[in-house]
Amino acid sequence: MRKATKLLCRPSSLLQLRRKSSQTKPYETNQSTPASLYQSISSVILPQNELNTHSTTDPKAQRSMRSPTVCRNASMGENVYPNNCSKEEDVSPIVQRITEVVRSDQAGLSMEERLDGLGLPCNPEIVAMVLKRCFKVCYLAHRFFNWVKSRQGLYHSTETYNTMLYIAGDAKQFGLMERLIEEMEKDGCRKDIKTWTILIMHYGNAGSVGKALSTFQSMKKSGCEPDYQVYKVILAALCNAEKPELAMEFYKEMVSKNMSLNLKLFQMLLNCLVELDDKECIRAVRGDMTKAMDFSENKVYVCLLKSYCVKGKLKAAQEVFGEMTKKNMVSTEAYEIFLKGLCRGGMMEEASEIINSLKINSLVSNKAYGFLIEGFLRKGDMDKAIGIFATMSKAGLVPAVSSYTQAMQHLFRGNKQQDAFKLFDEMLEQGVKPDTVVITALVAGYISLGKISEVWGVLKGTREKGLKLSLKAYTVFIKELCRASFPQEALKVIEEMMGLGIFPSDSIINLVIGCLTKIGNSELVEKAKTLRQVFNSGSVGAQQGYISFNNNCAQSGMVLSSDTIDEKSCINHEDVKKVCDILYYRRREWSEIQKMLEKENFCYSPEMVDLILRKCMRHGGVALEFFSWVGKRPNYKHNTCTYSMAIKIAGGAKDFQHMRYLYHEMRRNRCPVVANTWTIMISQYGQAGLTEMALRAFKEMKREGYQPDRFTYKYLILFLCGKKGRKIIEAVQIFQEMIHNVCMPDKETIDTYLSMLCEVGKIEDARRSVVSLCKLGFEMQVAYSVLVKAMCRAGRIDESLELLCDLKKIGCTIDQYMYASIIHSLLRGGRDKEALDKVEEMKRVGIPCTSYVYTSLMVHFFKERNSGKALEIFRKMQEEGCKLTVVTYSALIRGFMNNGMVKEAWDIFYKMKLKGPFPDFETYSMFMCSLCKAGRSEDALLLIHEMFDMGIIPSTVNFRTVFYGLNREGKHYLARSVLQEKWKLNRERKYFN
What we know:
Layout: H1 2-9, H2 12-15, H3 35-45, E1 71-73, E2 78-80, H4 92-103, H5 111-116, H6 124-133, H7 138-150, H8 158-170, H9 174-186, H10 193-205, H11 209-221, H12 228-240, H13 244-256, H14 263-273, H15 279-291, H16 297-310, H17 314-326, H18 332-344, H19 348-360, H20 366-378, H21 382-394, H22 401-413, H23 417-429, H24 436-448, H25 452-464, H26 471-483, H27 487-499, H28 506-518, H29 522-537, H30 540-546, H31 551-555, E3 565-566, E4 571-572, H32 573-584, H33 590-600, H34 606-615, H35 620-631, H36 640-652, H37 656-668, H38 675-687, H39 691-703, H40 710-721, H41 728-740, H42 747-759, H43 763-775, H44 780-793, H45 797-806, H46 816-828, H47 832-844, H48 851-863, H49 867-879, H50 886-898, H51 902-915, H52 921-933, H53 937-949, H54 956-968, H55 972-989
């Protein structure tokens, strides 16, 4: 708040750095920004749709604000002029009362109605002060801002707009910032130097350099001359974005305007410039700093040395350090900076020489020794690192806590637990207070030795000393306890976490449940499942109520916070849950749902609505009804994110007519359309196999002036290459366009594209594409690995074997992924002996068998009706610690089903659900199909219902498979229920208004 007040209230004259007119200018440049600079900006950085922040030409914009400004006393119906609440009067009680109403969250009357009933005077000064008190609660500040605007006779001033802009920018709500600028122009409110500074600062801080530069250009066009603060913000943004050429141009312009850099900004500029390796440029900047900006030569050298060390340019750092030594400028600070750089760069001999120099000059410190310890640990030289602790003790120096932490972690990793414990005891004797990282390492060490009582002693001591452990630390404890076969203790840790308001992930709880199941403790399994249910319910009340069973936490008086407002994202998650509960109740008609929503009178923001839509995607129809209803609420307006989410929901339900309606409504409401909006529409067409419509949307997108990004290209190519709606010529054209527009495709896109070319027999085209990608910078080894996989997938086994022979000529090796693709392809093609020979060859060259190879062998042996051999492969995978993926378990289930081992298939499926990896859509679909083939379609119907419970939406094919299966088995009544479930799902996902 203090920072915001300082920026918004100080006069612009104080923001400029005043220099004597007699000073010489190191650079003679034009007062305006160089044209060459903006040419480079427009071609490289600026977004397609430049932010329109030009001042309006409307005559009424010449006024700084509307005059006279009046406030309406809503309760009395009379107008109150600013004189009634003048600056001479103490307005803090008024500000306090209004702020209480704005920030309170009471049931009954809305905030706006309670504000109307206050009957307090209001002027721009009071409005600005209230807004500043709501600084970290953007959505409440914006509601109050809109309420002020809606009052008859009261208009916002430049100051109030500036305050709201600052709050929106701090919350990173850039869409709101742009809307505020538009409103400012419509209201005829003049943009001053503070307005432009706020915009540029927030865009710069967020890394949106293009937006910041675009706003800077608009500022100059409006006739507002940038001051030192603006240049400072722009220069910092360019340095953070590592754009040294542009940073140098702006620096030159600052120098030409007699503007100096402070030490922090100078350091940022040097960090950026050292990447250029332009010593002349750096020398010139150094000269400016010493001659024109009154920095000492020693300070400038220290900054330059730090920049070279930070960027890892140690040779240049050595040269600078040598120059400092010759000029007798080497200070303790310089020694430590150089020492840290050498240690991080692994130059330990040179680092030891620096330590010796420090000893001679009696300048050695615990900080310097700490760098040396870190360096030796990085190189894996534990003996030398530990030896330094003894050296420090003799010198009477106490190591820092970070040095102890790093050493202990390395000792534990090297199974030297006793040495680590000794180091911890020494740390306590030295009076060094342990931090959470040390505690985590210590607890993990005790668990590995089975000393559980010591673990709880450490955790108790940590609580008593007021140290709060993180979620990451607790997760490490739970994993270590499960690995050491102490799942009961792991469950206790989870209970303690709940008492502290820290909630573990599903995977961690499932890990504990799986370990408890192994030891056969059914009582604790049920307790753990109850915990998981409480966590997943999302109900704060339920979580708070469940704390009572954890006696240890209850005795320590630890309870969960009742404050459910996420101030960073401005979302009240409790309200989100209540809205979702209302929408999820499917038996109600929309009219009844609407009444319940209106009765609750929630405070909606676009972020909250976006989250609700995401949670209600399965019930698309009611979600879209809610979207339409909330868009008509007073003081609410949809943004790009909420429209995009609604478009995605409509498209996912194949309601393309409504999807297009939403897009046109978005444009009518002047909501910014971005490339992602088009990408979503193109993807929805593609997923439905309507690639012709996807192509039309793509052409329309370009016709309307929107530039496709790499995701647009990616998803369009994926759908054009797919078997459903495949269009080969168009896919090749789009891929080439993607490359031409310097949008490097990712591995998935390349994999799909090459597979398509190989499947249609265009092997040479696929090879040429790989060569082109490698020339553009794609990693050669990965590219050819993907090509081999694509050829094998298309059944081109001989061509892929020939390619393997040519790999050495082009500088590639045969890696594990290539072997896996070849082996799988040979097995699928019935060439068993060649496949097994490849497995042996793979072992001979030292490449271990991967889960992909083992899974391929399992599938092969199941196909040969040799389930014993397949299970032997599976056991071998487990013994060798091979990662068991969803594909592996799915192959096992399919193999059991094909061999009539239905009970074993269900056992594996339940194991997946219990311990992970959890079944995905493909696993459910495969198992469903296998059950129907085996005459167990009723079980497959249960899987349909289970998919809904897991949040997975069954496809049309899933419904059709189960429907036909039940009819074949004569269960016509159940078959009709499947159709009814499908129709019901379709109704729920579509918008019927």
